[in-house]
Amino acid sequence: MKKGAVMTKELIAKAVLAQTKMALAKADLAMREFFAALLSLKITKKNAPALWAVIASMIFLGTAQPTAYGLEFPMTTRLALPDSTNLTSKNLTVKSGLPMVSLSSQMSEMAIVADLSRQVELARTKPGAKKVAREIMKSEYKWGEYQYTCLNKLWTRESHWNYKAHNRRSGAHGIPQALPAIKMDVIADDWRTNPVTQIRWGLRYIDIRYETPCKAWSKFSRSRYY
Fold first, then answer.
1. Integer angstrom CA distances of residue 85 from 37, 82, 105, 173
2. In contact, 213 and 153? CB cutoff 8 Å
3. For the chain, which terminal residue's Cβ has fewer other Cβ atoms within 10 angstroms, N or C?
4. Where are the domains of the chain?
C-alpha cells in the first residue's frame, strides 16, 4: 500500500474518532441537563407515567441507533421499564442479547459466584480448608462435630489439609489424596488447583464408600488407607 493512502486512512480514522468523541460529549452534556431538569420537577401520581414514557423514549432512541458517525456499535443492552406506579428492583429487568433476566436474579447469581470464590480462596489455607469442609459436611451431608473430628484426623494424616499435597510414588493428590487423582473429574476438572473441588470429591467418596467420616477413619486406622 502506498504511503499516501496509509496517511489518508489514518487522517480519516482520526477525524471519525474526533467526531465520535464530540458526539459522545454532547450526548453526555444533554443527559446531564435532562436529569438535572428531571430532579427539579415535582413528581406526582399524575405526571409520573408521562415522565417514565419520556425516559423510556430516550433510552429507546439511545439504543436503537446502530451507528455513530459511521462506526458500528452493537446493541447489547436494553431496559424494560415496568409500570411507574409499581417500580421495584424485582420487576426491573435487563435484556442482554436474547434472554430476559430479572435484576434480582442477576444479583443472586453474582452473590453465589462471589461466595464460591470466597470459599476457594479460604480453602487454600489449612484452617480455611477445615472451615469449608465443616460447612459443606454440615449443610449437605448433615454430619455433625463428631464426624468432623474423624474427618480432621483422617485428612490430617493423609495430606495435612494441603491442597497441593502430591504423592509422586502413587500419584495420590490433594486434601483427600484421591487415587488416581483423575477421579476428581467427577466434581470438576480444576481439581489440581481448587481445594473446594478436592473437598467435595473427598466427602462424596466417603459418603458413597463408608457412609460416614468415622467409618472411613476406622478403615484408615486398620489399613493405613481408605
1. 21, 9, 22, 59
2. no
3. N
4. 124-223
Chain segment 115-151, per-residue pLDDT in tens: 788 899 999 999 999 999 999 999 999 999 999 999 9
What is the rounded CA–CA span in Å between residue 56 and residue 62? 10
Instruction: Check if the beta carbon of residue 94 is closer than 8 Å to that of residue 106.
Output: yes
User: What's the grid cell of residue 163?
Assistant: 491442597
Most confident of the following: 15-19, 78-82, 155-159: 155-159
CA atoms within 13 A on the CB side of 159: 26
CA distance 74 to 56: 19
pLDDT tens for residues 21-48? 666 676 667 667 766 666 666 666 666 6
